[in-house]
Records
---
Amino acid sequence: MTGILASFTHGGSRLPWVSVALAAASLVLFAVFGGQPEAFIYDRELVANGEFWRLATGHFAHLDHQHLVMNAGALIALGFLYETSPHGGVRRLVWGCFVFSAGLISCALFFGDPKTQFYCGLSAILNALFVVTMIAMWRETRSRLWLFGLFLLAAKTGYEAMFGSVFSSGLEWPPHVGAHLTGIAAGILLVVFDLSEKTRRRLSRSYAGAARTE
């Protein structure tokens, strides 16, 4: 248990400034424009008419304060773990969890789900961040607690697919299960890419070391 608790600080005092900044962006957007801001939510018809920025800003817009607080809180909590982890970091958080997963989720919405007219919120991206964080923490601690976290995410997503929202039943728009599944898929792909890159680097070092000894 001590090892698990110690893993939350990763042996240092770094703070997840990028995660806090990204959460703050959502807070500012909500404070200035309110819930469901017409200029920033994903609106399929307007995206098709050239308002492509909505593919990015839709992830930071929220329906109401409940939606915002849940997502911003989850982002800061997961960001604290992943951004400061030796198996995570700022670069992976920004380029992987936000640029890659947000792009994949937006493409899935636009090209794969023509019936969805509107969408907003960080929850699908948070699913990607959750997956990579649980794996990063498991690699760091080898505690099954983090693998159990993955099971809980799968159970939650399955429940929502069959019965509706677990935590946000009062929201005007129901959770988009397809976007959530795409976020999970993005997280799995990021883990696979990371492990493949590490394997490639180890092989390169092995070949280089063997060449020097010949």
---
Amino acid sequence: MSELKTEEEQIEAFKTWWKKNGLVLVIVVAASVGGYFGWQAWKNNQANYISEASALYQNLVQASADLSDENNQKTVTFIAKQLSDDYGDTGYAMFGQLFLARVDAENGNYDEAIAALDNAISKTSDASFVAIADLRVAQLLLQKEDFSAAMTRADKVSDEEFEAQKQELIGDIFMQQGKRDEARLAYQKASEAIGTGVNHPLLEIKLKDLVKG
């Protein structure tokens, strides 16, 4: 009987505890379960979001393969805008601006292309993207024959990863000005930055032409 009484007392004690704390326990458990599934849903949504942006970007890259085609230009412009409007917090939107600038450059709209690149630069702190964009701007300024501005922009690139591209571009700027010695020095620096065992046929041609001259 003492054991039964003890069990009955335990049951009563549990009922009393449940009346006081049961609702709180249910809320805590529900919140925990809801939070878990909410987190899973958020992760799935994020994965879908990135996947959608990636698919759009791949379509953009394909369309940019031939920008002499007006329809491809329209496709690139449309997708780049969609990436900027709907997926602006992704890297795909940033790089979409590079392709948008290429469309403008293809049509000789260098100022619009530079504006697009500068706008993209202002929205990111990604050092690699900024370096790529600065080099593109410098190339566009060279196209405009604004040699001083092109050189200034190229000099802004300090990331060693892009040293070869930077020096080759500087060489191109000097060549356009007829400064062959300075161009040869820049091309040699570009070749050194690339390193041994890596072929860069166009750069080799530029250097050979200068040596022959």
